[in-house]
């Protein structure tokens, strides 16, 4: 679905990583781990077409991202649900409207009615639907961000530290939601520092662990 082949990236200075290859096969569940600053967020951004590789090929659903125009990238992006590290809500809009926003952007606002109630219940936020994002707890924000990422029923879920700043119980709950999505056939890639969470996931799902360190990506990491 998404493939990186011999990819390098730099922000204008020294190379952050190079010779990096990665395939997100349909239905796979993968974790990306590695030290702070190694480039995990950058790698995720390459996977969802937010950044262009300095060299190498990024392929989004069979198309070379470097040869795609803005509209084509936007269309590919609609097949990817992203949970950002900092959630990125519009603070003046109620939680339910924030979650429904991707449907509006995709011109599918008419699908919101049934979907939204179901999704709010799934993430346990039915009672918070009318609240503003700043009124939510950390765990509630993370669950709202996950609901927003999946409302369009994307093929791929990419989550950047989706359990950052929440306690163990809440991170388990978020993990369960991500595992459920994978069981529904979604391809999942999660960047996480939390090795206990990754171990817990491996007990529930066949997950590959990637480690990005010193500009190199190692696959099949044993914990
Ligand atoms: N827009 C940018 N411009 C310049 N440098 C950047 C930019 N974004 C990130 N960097 C640098 O690139 C490196 C990798 O950042 P990135 O956020 O990808 O790492 P990370 O592994 O996700 O870190 P963390 O685990 O702390 O979130 C860091 O040194 C960071 O300062």
UniProtKB/TrEMBL annotation:
<protein>
    <submittedName>
        <fullName>Cell division transport system ATP-binding protein</fullName>
    </submittedName>
</protein>
<dbReference type="GO" id="GO:0016887">
    <property type="term" value="F:ATP hydrolysis activity"/>
</dbReference>
<keyword id="KW-0132">Cell division</keyword>
<dbReference type="GO" id="GO:0005524">
    <property type="term" value="F:ATP binding"/>
</dbReference>
<keyword id="KW-0067">ATP-binding</keyword>
<dbReference type="InterPro" id="IPR003593">
    <property type="entry name" value="AAA+_ATPase"/>
</dbReference>
<dbReference type="InterPro" id="IPR015854">
    <property type="entry name" value="ABC_transpr_LolD-like"/>
</dbReference>
<dbReference type="InterPro" id="IPR017871">
    <property type="entry name" value="ABC_transporter-like_CS"/>
</dbReference>
<dbReference type="InterPro" id="IPR003439">
    <property type="entry name" value="ABC_transporter-like_ATP-bd"/>
</dbReference>
<dbReference type="InterPro" id="IPR027417">
    <property type="entry name" value="P-loop_NTPase"/>
</dbReference>
<keyword id="KW-0547">Nucleotide-binding</keyword>
<keyword id="KW-0131">Cell cycle</keyword>
<dbReference type="GO" id="GO:0005886">
    <property type="term" value="C:plasma membrane"/>
</dbReference>
<dbReference type="GO" id="GO:0051301">
    <property type="term" value="P:cell division"/>
</dbReference>
<feature type="domain" description="ABC transporter">
    <location>
        <begin position="2"/>
        <end position="223"/>
    </location>
</feature>
<dbReference type="Pfam" id="PF00005">
    <property type="entry name" value="ABC_tran"/>
</dbReference>
<dbReference type="GO" id="GO:0022857">
    <property type="term" value="F:transmembrane transporter activity"/>
</dbReference>
């Amino acid at each position: 679905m998404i493939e990186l082949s011999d990819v390098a990236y730099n922000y204008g200075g020294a190379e952050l990583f190079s010779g990096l290859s990665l395939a997100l096969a349909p239905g796979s569940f993968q974790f990306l781990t590695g030290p702070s600053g190694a480039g995990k967020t950058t790698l995720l951004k390459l996977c969802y077409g937010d950044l262009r590789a300095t060299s190498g090929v990024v392929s989004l659903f069979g198309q070379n991202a470097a040869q795609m125009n803005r509209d084509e990238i936007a269309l590919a992006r609609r097949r990817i649900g992203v949970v950002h590290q900092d959630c990125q809500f519009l603070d003046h809009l109620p939680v339910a409207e924030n979650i429904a926003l991707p449907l509006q952007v995709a011109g599918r606002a008419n699908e919101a009615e049934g979907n939204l109630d179901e999704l709010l219940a799934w993430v346990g936020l039915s009672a918070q639907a009318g609240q503003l994002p700043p009124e939510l707890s950390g765990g509630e924000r993370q669950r709202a961000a996950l609901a927003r990422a999946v409302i369009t029923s994307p093929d791929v879920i990419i989550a950047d530290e989706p359990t950052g700043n929440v306690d163990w119980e809440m991170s388990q709950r978020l993990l369960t939601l991500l595992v459920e999505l994978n069981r529904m056939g979604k391809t999942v890639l999660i960047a996480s520092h939390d090795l206990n969470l990754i171990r817990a996931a491996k007990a529930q799902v066949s997950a590959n662990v990637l480690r990005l360190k010193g500009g190199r990506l190692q696959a099949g990491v044993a914990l």
